[in-house]
Amino acid sequence: MAQNYDPAPEAKSNMGQPIPRYEAVQKVTGAKIYADDLPVPGRAAYGWMVTSAIAKGRITSIDYTAAKSVPGVQLILTHENRPSLADIKTFAGGGLGITDVQPLSGPEVHHDGQPVALIVADTFEAAREASFKLAISYAESSPTATFGDEGTVEKNLSEVNPRYEPIRFNDADAAITNSAHSIDVEYYTPTQHHNAIELFSTTAYWDGPRLVLHEPSQYVWGLRNASASMMEVDAENVRVKSPFVGGAFGSKAALTHRTALAAMAAKQLGRPVKLVAMRDQGFTHSGHRQETRQRVRLGCDANGKLTGYDHRQWEFTARTTPYSNGGLEKTVAMYDFKAARTDNYVVQGDRNVPTFMRSPAEVPTVYALEAAMNELAAKAGIDPVEFRKMNDTRVNPVNGVPYTSRSLNECLDAAAERFGWTGRNPEARSMRDGDWLIGWGCSIAMYPTQMMPSTARLTVRRNGTAFIEVAAHDVGTGCYTIAAQAAGERLGIDPRRIDVRMGDSRLPPGPISGGSISTASVTSAIAKACDLVDERLGVAKDASAEERSAALSGMAMPELEVVGSWVPAGMDESAIESLYKGGVRISGGAGEERTMFAFGAEMVEVRVNERTREVRVPRIVGAFAAGRIMNPRTAHSQYLGGLIWGIGSALHEATEIDHKRARYVNDNIAEYLIPVNADIEQVDIIMVPEVDEEVNILGVKGIGELANVGTPAAITDAIWHATGIRIRDLPVRIEKLL
Amino acid sequence: MRPFRYERPATAARAVAAAGGEAHFLAGGTTMVDLMKLDVMRPERLLDITQLEDGRYDFIDWDGKSLRIGALTAMATLADDDEVRRRVPMLSDALWLAASPQIRKAARIGGNVLQRTRCAYFRDTSYAQCNKREPGSGCAALDGGVTRGHAVLGTSSACIATYPGDFAQSLIALDAVVEILGKDGPRAVRFAELHRQPHSRPDIETTLEEGDLIVAFSIPDADFPRSRYLKVRDRESYAYALASTAGALRMDGDVVADIRIALGGVATVPWRAREAEEMLKGSSISEDGLERAAEAAFAGASTTEDNAYKVDLGKRTMVRTFLELARMEG
């Protein structure tokens, strides 16, 4: 069998060293590094969250008798006895809340799995047993589950988000109508859940007026401030600890109900309370990738030059909170369109609120655009790789704003060469191996380069070591490692001699770990801190490593501490103030002054059994260009995980919903399918060197959400190429190919 | 989970004497403990049978062409047995393609055949309707539920929950016999009589009586080197069958001398397609003939909108199994 994974990818130009992860040994030896592992003072009590068994209606009565009689039960909180809490605002309202529904705020049930009670006991087992005995009666109404069901409400996104503007760029309708070739197709993408291996845990305890939260978080400063305002205490009195996160993908960015439940119970009982939303509860606790419908009209002239692009998206969302991820302002910047029109709608039903999930806007919208590009290329008789290259653009066609860098064509060439794309027979059903039909497909991947303000405290020591402190987060991406590398490269110190501390709201604030912004933002703040060290030591900016090293070892004091702070271009210093308040200000992507994106090209081979229609993916090639690569080893892991995620998104992942009851039925990881090892064969990653001096200080583009974008379009095209069948709703399951 | 008592009887006889009512046997626990955590099963006492009489029920014995397997044999042990793999690959295949390495190591084959359905409405007690869990409460799956994984054969208006296992299909195809130790002593029943279709009482899944302990499976004629278990599913490993076929073939020249067909993933119980077997016996293997036999195997199917594809997929799976077996060296 071929070796699929290079142990340490080489550093090409504009790449850092592929050093091993900062926490590699801790991770493989099972060290206690996650929030739920942290010790607490005194004997903890254990919570069990009781969630609603209906999606719509109200609680008519609760009989506590049997539950309270379970030995060890200390507290049962419901809407009937909940202490006062301030209302939590959602992201749309400038807060961090996942939903506008407040914790245990009343008898109304707005969605399946809404927390309706918290049981706290001396042991987990007692709390669990009591949960079986808490008798809750409901008056149930008929809920609306999804698209096409009775009771949905459709709104133009501008009705719920005043800042949203549909795009009208020249006359797309006329451009498409007058095209030599055009298509008008609809696509569907399913609800998906993050399902990180680490569950949603919160441990809360009070030390006098001070609240300590151990909670895996993508934004400890945000969680600190949002929790403080919810609990009506000073933000300085709340501390959030989350040293490492065991997978998040967007699901650990928001403030969910469990934080309030644990904090209230801990206060009432005067002891630490540990609370975990179980796997099935996780499906309704912290959001999901919204289900979407997409309609794409696309045209090109006889030579294959794109003309008009019309893309409309419908996102299924919650009746209580019309959350939207949008995204069409980005797809419209991808190619040299002569005219474009976009519209985004939200469709509301009785569901919990969606949230961001790895490339939240990009996964559904880029899938639709790229699938449409493949369909139009086939219709026009043009090779799909060639088709993309001939429609490349250097500017966002809508506003003419130039890309800071764009290496899509280089990625397409690199992937095509590695894959052996040249000479692909354009005919469907043209390749087979015995009973297996073979097909090839391609897509582009893209992700906006985004940034947030950040600070970083840097301590350099005379003995040649250093220490970085920033409340950024390592969600499995290698953030500690990269922070050490950013400082090490600048100061001429081996990064393995630099300690890093993250994931604690007592540290200087860093960005939310979302939107693939951490590396760009944190390394920029570290670079600023390094500049301050230079200044204090009187070292010239262009000094050699030896000169710097000499200056450090010659310091009068044993150590020097500085705090660097950085704001992205286009933001003023008030952005730092907002950061200290736990705010979320993000810039980048399709901006007014710069168009900033990372790109990739993906090529895939599928095999489909002619009779029983199983789809297998024997090989996939991805080539990516994303500015400076800080560490080719951790970058390789991000790309690898992204491509595998993309395969899952195309073939496996979907949360199934009961239309009658508006409840998720496959709420476990035996039946919510993601690829297993046996599904993944050969995965080739190519890192295409790219230099971008405009995006930020180090020229870094975020990569965590790049590789999984577009993969489903490559796979559906390969399936078409193998079978002649166009599947336009994901995931592609056997029954769709019979 | 709820509190329970844990006991470890020393002998099978004592285990059987102690069992019944709310006292259940515990072997690998891969179904029992799972369903206890979900509050679907609420035993008050668990009788751990894994240590009975020094492994007396953990064996794989060939005697000529007959095979006898102890009920406490781990799935992994039987799957890995060289002689089984060579002489009757369908038994090994069915185990290899089931579950995960960890589960195969823990689970024993006696409990394996009693694995309970994955129907979401059965496994989640917050659904009020489930005739299997609460007799007479209705069927959420049939009342507008998600039924993509549900059965199309052997269903009733009370229940369409799929029998989830793989290994049982191979046993039923091989005319296995179940050796039971009951309160009245040992007895044997045909494997085909072990499981009950749901009819009006889907909560009664087997013909076992209170206290009955499966101690072994015996297969009087197990020599089927030309046999296999084909499992079609949504991913390559660790997934339940959408459709599967346990198939075995004996040829006399170009003529089918003996053929065994059992279907998984599509029925409420391990399902033997005897009518299809009869149609194919005595003729040569052809795609047309197989398609006609598959048609007959699914003639009695009853479907929902979600699972209608299983009829087509089940037929294709059966046909593919025998086309591939026909290509094998006899």
From TrEMBL, chain A:
Top-rank taxon, per record: Bacteria
Residues annotated as domain Aldehyde oxidase/xanthine dehydrogenase a/b hammerhead: 29-142
Record-given protein name: Molybdopterin-dependent oxidoreductase
Lineage: Bacteria, Pseudomonadati, Pseudomonadota, Alphaproteobacteria, Sphingomonadales
Keywords: Molybdenum, Oxidoreductase
Gene3D superfamilies: Aldehyde oxidase/xanthine dehydrogenase, a/b hammerhead, Aldehyde oxidase/xanthine dehydrogenase, molybdopterin binding domain
PANTHER family xrefs: ALDEHYDE OXIDASE 1-RELATED, XANTHINE DEHYDROGENASE
SUPFAM superfamilies: CO dehydrogenase molybdoprotein N-domain-like (SSF54665), Molybdenum cofactor-binding domain (SSF56003)
Entry-linked InterPro entries: Ald_Oxase/Xan_DH_a/b, Ald_Oxase/Xan_DH_a/b_sf, Ald_Oxase/xanthine_DH-like, AldOxase/xan_DH_MoCoBD1, AldOxase/xan_DH_MoCoBD2, AldOxase/xan_DH_Mopterin-bd_sf
Molecular function terms from GO: iron ion binding; oxidoreductase activity
Ranges in coiled-coil conformation: none
Pfam families given in the database record: Ald_Xan_dh_C, MoCoBD_1, MoCoBD_2
Species the sequence originates in: Parapontixanthobacter aurantiacus
UniProtKB/TrEMBL annotation, chain B:
Gene Ontology MF annotations: FAD binding; oxidoreductase activity
Domain FAD-binding PCMH-type: 1-224
Superkingdom per UniProt: Bacteria
Database matches in InterPro entries: CO_DH_flav_C (IPR005107), CO_DH_flav_C_dom_sf (IPR036683), Diverse_Substr_Oxidored (IPR051312), FAD-bd_PCMH (IPR016166), FAD-bd_PCMH-like_sf (IPR036318), FAD-bd_PCMH_sub1 (IPR016167), FAD-bd_PCMH_sub2 (IPR016169), Mopterin_DH_FAD-bd (IPR002346)
Sorted UniProt keywords: FAD, Flavoprotein
Name of this protein: Xanthine dehydrogenase family protein subunit M
Organism from which the protein derives: Parapontixanthobacter aurantiacus
